[in-house]
Write a structure and sequence with these properties.
By secondary structure, the chain is an alpha+beta fold. The chain has 5 helices and 4 strands; from the N terminus they run H-H-H-E-H-E-E-H-E. It folds into 2 domains: 85 residues; 84 residues, Alpha-Beta Plaits, CATH 3.30.70.120. A 4-stranded antiparallel sheet has the order 2-3-1-4, with no helix packed on it. A hairpin with a 2-residue loop joins strand 2 and strand 3. It is found in: Cell membrane.
Length: 176
């Protein structure tokens, strides 16, 4: 009985580990880190093979199947949580302030975000559009700053696949 409990726990932990690794591996591939992703994939599949072989060879133990499925579900959650915390890479924020005359660009710059202001034409005439490239780990602080200074601003945030040149301020080092 103790052996069955131990194997049930090990199957769950193996799936938790390999699925979390798979989630991070997918993100690494998307971010262009193929070498690290391939290295991670080697260990990910070894853990998966060990877990699946135990379940497949003993299908009469329903609790192994449940542990396998719970490990998979939990691994998806943990992997996405870890990816969010690691927050590697950059994103692009497109902001249209709610008021035409605003010092929002200066406030964002004061908080360490590089802002390029572009004049655009909207439904109600001239609009100012702020283009900001920022580290993904700074997204929460960026949104907090934006919300505190212009609750009605329109914004979108998108992942950046490639980044070259330009000027990036180090927002994570600035605490205001």
């Amino acid at each position: 009985m103790e052996e069955a409990i131990l194997w049930t726990l090990l199957i769950f932990l193996a799936r938790l580990t390999d699925v979390s690794m798979g989630t991070l591996r997918t993100i690494l591939i998307i971010r262009g880190r193929r070498g690290i992703a391939a290295f991670s994939a080697f260990f990910e599949i070894m853990v998966w093979v060990l877990a699946v072989s135990r379940v497949i060879t003993q299908l009469d133990r329903w609790y192994y199947i449940v542990a396998f499925a719970l490990g998979f579900a939990s691994g998806n959650y943990l992997g996405s949580y870890l990816e969010e915390k690691i927050a590697m890479g950059y994103c692009f924020a497109y902001v249209v302030p709610s008021e035409k005359q605003t010092n929002l660009a200066e406030i964002l710059r004061k908080h360490g975000f590089g802002v390029t202001v572009v004049k655009g034409e909207g439904l109600k005439g001239t609009e100012y559009v702020y283009n900001i490239v920022l580290r993904r780990r700074d997204t929460h602080r960026f949104l907090k700053t934006l919300e505190a200074n212009d609750k009605k601003a329109f914004y979108t945030i998108m992942d950046v696949h490639a980044l070259h040149g330009g000027y990036m301020r180090s927002a994570t080092k600035r605490k205001i």
